[in-house]
Specification:
- The structure is a single chain.
- By secondary structure, the protein is mainly α.
- It is built from four helices and two strands.
Amino acid sequence: MKDCYKKEDQENFLKGLTDFDKGANGFLDLDHDKQVEYVTKVHNDAQEAMKDPASKDKPRPFIMTMKELTVVGILYVGTWCYASAPIRSSAWCLQGCIPLSEVGKNLGDLVSSPSIE
């Protein structure tokens, strides 16, 4: 974000992140079902708000920016991992839910490819 967004947009995003967490009374403390419910509500509210012509003069809702960054980030990382890993098989797996201490500091360490033996 720091390299690609104007300072004002960065500040709006960080404020949105703080407001998002406060609105959930601690998003990460919620169980999975409550997280899904909260994100769905915030997303639907943002979509409705963006239909108002006056919203064009307001900062983009946090949830919409986060959604875009998540999708674009996954596509970028997936492409980068695929392009930078040795080709051993067509079955690729990105292991994103493991502690970095177990795999090292390089993002490429998170890519595994079953060897054909």
